From TrEMBL:
Residues 71-91 are annotated as: Disordered. GO terms for molecular function: exodeoxyribonuclease VII activity. Its EC number is 3.1.11.6. GO terms for cellular component: cytosol; exodeoxyribonuclease VII complex. Heterooligomer composed of large and small subunits. It is found in: Cytoplasm. Bidirectionally degrades single-stranded DNA into large acid-insoluble oligonucleotides, which are then degraded further into small acid-soluble oligonucleotides. Keywords: Cytoplasm, Exonuclease, Hydrolase, Nuclease. Its main location: cytoplasm. Gene3D superfamilies: Exonuclease VII, small subunit. It catalyses: Exonucleolytic cleavage in either 5'- to 3'- or 3'- to 5'-direction to yield nucleoside 5'-phosphates. One of its GO terms (biological process) is DNA catabolic process. This is Exodeoxyribonuclease 7 small subunit.
Amino acid sequence: MVVVSAPSPAADAADVAGLTYEQARDELVAVVSRLEAGGATLEESLALWERGEALAARCQQWLDGARARLDAAREADGDGPSRGAGDDSGS
């Protein structure tokens, strides 16, 4: 059996930082599938989990940025800030 060592956390974070939302999401789906399939060693599973956490954080960064851009566009159009799902004021 070949054991593949995981890249260092700093190198992994730099790699993830350059991914588009779609790239990070697609790789995250693949990581989850590999974890769910089982059969990986503990070390491999931990490396996959850590990669998945980094990918999920990158996706969240993209989503947060998109939300901020939408909110800014709404405010510029005079629509005001967006309301949260639980906010029923003005409705």
